[in-house]
Amino acid sequence: MKVVFIIDQVYLHGGIERVLSIKANYLSNLKEYEIFIVTTEQKFKKPCYEFNSNIIFEDIEINYHRNKSYFHPINLLKIPRHIKKISKTLNNIKPDIVVVCSHSADTYFMPFVAKHISKIKEFHYSKVIEIEKKENPTSIFKRLFFKFADYVETKYNTLIVLNPDEATYYNSNNTLVIPNPLTFFPETTSKLENNIVISAGRIAPVKRFDVLIDIWELVQKNNNTLQLHIYGDGEKNYVQQLQKKIIDKNLTESIYLKGATDNIQEKMLNAALFVMTSDNECFPLVLLEAQACGLPIVSFDCPNGPRNIINSDNGVLIPMGKNQEFAESITNMLENPPKLKMFGSNARTNASKYQVDSVMKQWIAMFNTLKK
Questions:
Q1: Which residue, among 335, 184, 338, 324, has the nearest Cα to 268 in the 3D structure?
Q2: How far is the C-alpha of 232 from the C-alpha of 205, rounded, in Å?
Q3: Tens of pLDDT, residues 67-105
Q4: Phi and psi (nearest 5°) for 349?
Q5: Could you give phi then psi for residue 189, rounded to 5 degrees?
Q6: How far is 314 from 299, CA to CA, in rounded Å?
Q7: Are strands 315-318 and 255-259 parallel, antiparallel or unpaired?
Q8: Which Gene3D superfamilies does the protein's record reference (predicted)?
Q9: pLDDT band at residue 372 under the 50/70/90 scheme
Q10: H or E element: which one contains 328?
Q11: In the CATH scheme, what architecture does the domain 2-181+355-370 have?
Q12: How far apart are CA 105 and CA 8, in angstroms?
């Protein structure tokens, strides 16, 4: 079976890119699969994650302007060329199935290209961010756009969403819930003995690391022996804003912006607790990775991912905006070693349900139903 995964690029660290590497590598190890990854703007850069050598890469070099909306005129002018090149590429490969991974321009025309090929669209973001805009559109264009987007979604054979809550946001009847697979499941777990709290993710406003800094200021008032390590990269100006806030709050000796890492597993195994302050999440893989390392989690109960991973036996969900409660949960957890270890053990058990074999069996079953 030939499967084509379509994504904008695989040279930047991110959850979608990491999950793609796991799925593509798994399938490429099965003799009945031939895997292709087609990118639109790889720019001759090396993938940031490891891919098997038998996976075939092709970049069609559309190179959208990433600092502007895909619907900006300068990017809209690129779409005809994009359609032409992806059509030619698919006609050459002749795949059985096409999977659209990232939410880029091709999302909106892929169902109408090479119609004889089964198409799947993955959604890695929470649709909750669209509710207000859909219910109260600020222009006729936006109202029509949302109607068009809903229509396009009905034309895919299958829409993959990451948790049951997300499925309720779609008007079509072609949704299927398949969670992200774990990227690793280490043989050992954290000893939970170091005074290190860890967080990780793309350094962007939606992750609300600025709020985490405010929370950490409260933590330090109760326990100044703890350190907060934040891993990830992002837009330079925003990173600088966070660093300035850390300096202004005199937290330079307890908060460390560590940048991106290729070995988050090692960093988690050296920590005692994972924290997340995002505004919204769909199914944050990083939480499963933390649980696989035996880390309890304290997270805001944002829509909709954390509540589908964390329960009262392996972590704490904090109502949005309750910074003081969040800070107290961090200190209470770390000052109660028996509870910390019990939660860590339960977290590990929960993560085991998302190991690669289990999740990929669901993908393979779907592929078998769609092959024409």
A1: 184
A2: 13
A3: 888 888 999 999 999 999 999 999 999 999 999 999 899
A4: -65, -40
A5: -125, 170
A6: 11
A7: unpaired
A8: Glycogen Phosphorylase B
A9: low
A10: helix 323-334
A11: 3-Layer(aba) Sandwich (3.40)
A12: 9
Are 2-181+355-370 and 196-354 equal in CATH topology? yes
Cα 166 to Cα 24, 129, 163, 182, 349: the distances in Å are: 24, 11, 6, 20, 24
Residue 138's pLDDT band, with cuts at 50, 70 and 90, is confident
β 158-161/255-259 pair status = unpaired
Q: Do residues 282 and 125 touch, judged by C-beta distance below 8 A?
A: yes
Domain ranges of the chain: 2-181+355-370, 196-354
What is the residue-averaged pLDDT of the chain? 94
CB atoms within 10 A of CB 348: 19
pLDDT of residue 141: 87
pTM listed for this prediction: 0.86
Domain 196-354 has CATH 3.40.50.2000: yes
Query: Nearest Cα to 30, choosing from 61, 54, 50, 63?
Result: 54
